[in-house]
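Chapter summary example.
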Amino acid sequence: QKVGCVQVCLDDLAPVEGDNGGSGGGGGCGGGGGGGGGGQQDREGSVDVLLTSGGSMKVDLRVAALGGAFPGHAVAEPSELVSLGDVTEDPSVAEKKTLRHNLALKAKSYLEGHDVPKLMQGMVHALLEAKPEDPLLFMMSFLQAARDRDQVASAKRHEIDRMTAADDEPPGFAVDGMDLLPDLSEHHSKMAEVLRGDPDLYGRLSGCRTALGVTFAKCIKSCVDCPGHALVRVPGIFAGDASSYEVFSEAFEPVIQAWHKDFLAGFVHATDLEAWKLPITDLGAAGNGCVQSVCICASRNLQGLRFPGACSFEERRSAETLIAEATTALQGGRLEGAYLPLRGSDSWSGRPGGMIAAEAALRERGAAFEEPDAPALVSAGFARHWPHGRGLFESSSGGLLIRVNDSDHVQFTVQRADGNLKEAFEAFAEAERLLEGALRQRGGHGYARDGRLGFLSACPSRLGTALTATVVLRLPCLGKSPELQNICKANGMNVRRHFPQAGHAEKTGRPATATDAWELCCVGRLGTSEVEQVSALHRAALALAELEAQLSAGEGGVEGEGEGDGEVAVPGAQQLPATAEEHEELWEDDRVEFGPDACPEELPDFSAHHSLACKVLRDKPEIYHSLKGETTPLGVSLAGCVKTGVDNPGHPYIETVGMVAGDAYCYDVFRDLFDEVIAALHPKWGASGGRHVNDLSGERVAQTRMDASGEHIKGVRVRAARNFKALRMPALCSREERMEAERLLTRGLMRLGDDFRGLYCPLRGSSSYAPRPGGMSLEEEARLAVEDRVPEEPDSEMLTSAGYARHWPEARGCFAAEDRRLSATVNVEDHLLLEVALPGQDLAGAFDVLCRALGRLEAELLASGHGFAHSERLGYLGSSLTNLGSCLTLGVTVALPKLAARKHDMDALCGRLGVQANLLLSRGHQKFTFAQGVFELTNVDRLGSTEVDQVNLVIASCRVLVDIEERLASGVAVDFGREPEASARVAAVNGVVLREAGLHAEASLGLGLQHAGSGAASAAGASSLAATLLPPELAVQGSVTPLPTMATKASSENDLGISEFDRPGLDADEVIGFPADVCPEDMPSLEGYHSLLADVLRANPSIYSELRRKRTVKGVSFAKCVKAGFDSCGHPMIKTVGMSAGDAESYDVFSPLFEAALHAAHGDSFTKALHDRGEERARLKDLSWELPASHVLSLRIRARRNLAGLRFPPAISADERMEAEQLLLRGLQELTGELEGEYIPLLGMCAEEEHLLEGADLLFYAPDAVPTLSSGVGRDWPHSRGVFLSRTKKFGAWLNEEDHLCLWSMEAGADLRAALYRLLGAEDALRAALQQEGHSFAWSPHFGNLTSCPGSVGTGLRFEARTRLPLLGARSTEFRKLCRGLHLQPKNAGLGQPDVWEVWSSRRFTCSIAEQVQSFTAGLSTLVDVESRLTRGEAVDFEALLPSSS
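The structure predicted for these 1446 residues follows.
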């Protein structure tokens, strides 16, 4: 009995093509009729709902087809349905009509409330597209899938609600504040400086909040969490909302004033977005073809919402929704486009899951929206909730891009390739205006602005216009001139090299390196309007384009010839004075705080500085106060000299000099400081009474052959540095002084005579040398670079801070003689570096050539009134305090492969000889391998001995080293531990050298030599040993004197760096820091440390008191185990263990610490952890080993093991390490079948073996992380270490890496069972071999297999799989969270394979091998299943996939 009929239209369903009308009024739900009478016309896709008196509901879908009903379905007859349009006007009928109407409204409300119309529409579309044989079954499946999706959506809504409630901040400084502000003495932001200058500021503001709840602690969180770098100046404070600038004005105002120096207090910022005011000239047309593109970028925030760094998840989503919907105001015009949320974002209902294909296109154009990874941005909160609530609006033309919820709510970018800056600005202004109007209509949110500060950005550096306008110009001629930077600065612009965007290489076939294109952009934002900034940029771009055209046409622009200045002038541009004020721009004054002109009144805090200069000033502050106001006659201040040491605190393990000389007078004016540092660097100088004697008599050098066979020494070179006395040295000289030095030296070098005839080539881009404007050609540069003659621009922080990179490459170049014996570089670290290089072993001949060239050059310079800087006390003066006296560097390239294999013994021997051996891996175009053992042997001393003494010393030392190398090659045993014998042999060689030079051995005191033995006994020993230990031609009689012991501190050629092979922790000694033997009585503070060790000892400091004196039977101390944790504070976002085990007994003797740390890492499961070696193997056969072969590319399993009877690698001695190597090697060599292989020691590895292991990722390297080096693992590197590799290359082992043994088994594909059984079989065979020799692997029932790192105990196994997961891997947040829940860790494989991931098991403790296998296979299968579901387009509930315990 029919009581009502409702017709609901599905408006979104497309009408059927050719439709001429629906059924008539009496057609009802049948839809089979044609025209019908005068009744109400139905629309295609309507849903007729028939309500019966019994409460049931009958639904009939009608999809109009011309003249027919829905195919395959029987429909009700028209007579059975009552349409609302068929009711008469009879009163009784009218009452029924009202009833039917009310019922119809209720039905409509119910259906729309549950999205039934949309669901039906989707089902009809799918049905018509699929046309299945069984439509009813298809529709049932469709409805079930819809129900599943609804459940997933519900879970996502729950996740969003959870994120909204959580809104976790990054770890570190608490956003709600702390009672006391941490120590900011080593922080380098402007905010840190403000807080240090006003210690009470934090206390005054820490209790304040804005109306939206932003705290002061939130604003300065990045300042506290991220110390930054002395050379990179950042604000260090971010606004959390618009009110932050007012509520916390005491903190923001000093930063604003420092950043916007031209914006004075009391000024009001003016906004001007009237594009018609801009110049109408098109840069593209008027720029002489120089202008390549223009760009306008500006940011805005919404009033009434917290800014992106401080907002909640709900606020972020609300801002995204407002902005995305407001972009509809851009539709219908030239800015029309679409909003695309980031891939993986579900916060915008308009496109769940975000963009997919569009992301690749954006990334190719360099426009992708990337997750912030800079520590300061992460700490400030800009990466929270990523990628939710973020997206991009892109116009159809591609000219406009709007980023949503980056560091500000809105960021506009308009880019044009035609150079029309005005039209780009017009497009930006239009988009900015339309978007704000739409925002005000929807939520009343306008842009956040302030009457004084203009538009408000999260970062105070972008206040005012919050706009950056950029022009890219091609400047092939002007770009070579160093004046380009000065021209732009004089016009208020910044300029930098332009690098091609992503995709450049693929499109052009050329690498994306720097070109001759430059980016020009305006500097100021606050205090000048948008129109003023863009107009200034327009004028500067036109001026540069005009000057470029003049230079290209050969019309000049570089004034002066010969000895002139070489200034570049821009029409109408102000020129910077090349005076003392020049220093302000030499060090980029926007980034560096100290110097170089004047010292602060008070001595800076040098408590955390580790250079010699800072140490002297810290220990003797009276020196600072007496010298801080002094200057040399050439205007050099103390500030300029010590600037590099102040700017660079350095590292406690690496002691640098920390100062340079600005001119020759510095050594006298600042003598109190300089002499202290010099005495520490040059011990011989102090021993000789503080005087230096020079001797450039080449004929006094011994002519002895250093290498009798001629097979070892490959070449020699001699270098001497010189500076002018009347000019400031390169670190602090002006541009004019640098050019004058170049002029004088090039004229002198060109007049050396026919035997030294050559060519001077200024560096490419230098315009100071009149005969070669623009410098050397590309071909010349390539040829000279192969010969290792082209100086490189300094890039280390210490060198650039000292001033060596200023004006680069201006007034710098290299001279090369035609015969290539003699070469010189000009204005690099000294005014002149003269070098003579010869093949073979004629060091005496090379020195003679150098002496003749120096003599001629100095005579030529003296004739013109100029001489080199020299002192009776210090000899020749270099800009580096390590390079004084002779300023001479001797180098002998020698191959000593046998000695290289005994690097520790060789280092000790070189120390006794007084020379330094640096391993060479390349020299010019030559490449060397470690196995070849090619060294450059150099002199250590320069000050305190003459040039002749130093040459003779190197000759004698080379003779000794080559002799020992040949004895080792012949199989003769050499006892390096017998120092008297070694000293006597050195003495005998030295005596012969001196005798051949026409000197008496007794006169060798002029060398500053001392006896290593005692009196006559030592001399007699030398005489008696000479006949038996030295080659016949060296056996002499008479009195001889041994060479000196090595100086306590060998000075490198440059005090501003350290050789890789001098890295602390790789020699036999412990790293300096926390003692490795006995703990201090009081536990050092662990505040700010981030490790399990720090957590445990902070929570229970009594553990330190209880254990600090304890040792194991093998002598491992508690101090040794915790040294790494005390030496390295770690990172707040990376939790490390912070301790190591020195032997197996460490886990028992120091169990209170080890158990507490493991309990903190594993929770209550630690207390019930038991490991049974017998039962766990039996359980493996019952496991399911299947892994999805479609996605798993390869597998690798690693097992870490240690020998129970020896100390572990952190505490092992050199003898024990050798014993461990021999024990394990004997076992490995007994392996058979597919496990059979060969052992490759690191020291004996040839180039082919090295490349093979590197290519397969099977080679391990010397550690470089501070905690690892501090633990002692790298001591005596690389002795007694190597790689065992099976012939099948499926099995191998590392010996004495971080543990005694690391076994690994590899398998291509997904056969995990084969890989594991191969590894376990090898382990069993090794265990049996060890038992025969009375040894075993270290194991404990409670901890399992014992490793040096407590984080690896348990099974000691690590399962790794390389898998292809393109879609899942792209959803970074969900992927990593899912991996954590599944006890897995992911890492992108790199190597150009963004969709390939390395996934490994993180669970190895509190579980058996079988359980670890089960966990790994289940987790990996889950990842592949999710990838498959995403490939099919299915929704995935990630929370439901996590184990309940996670």
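To summarize the output: The mean pLDDT is 78.
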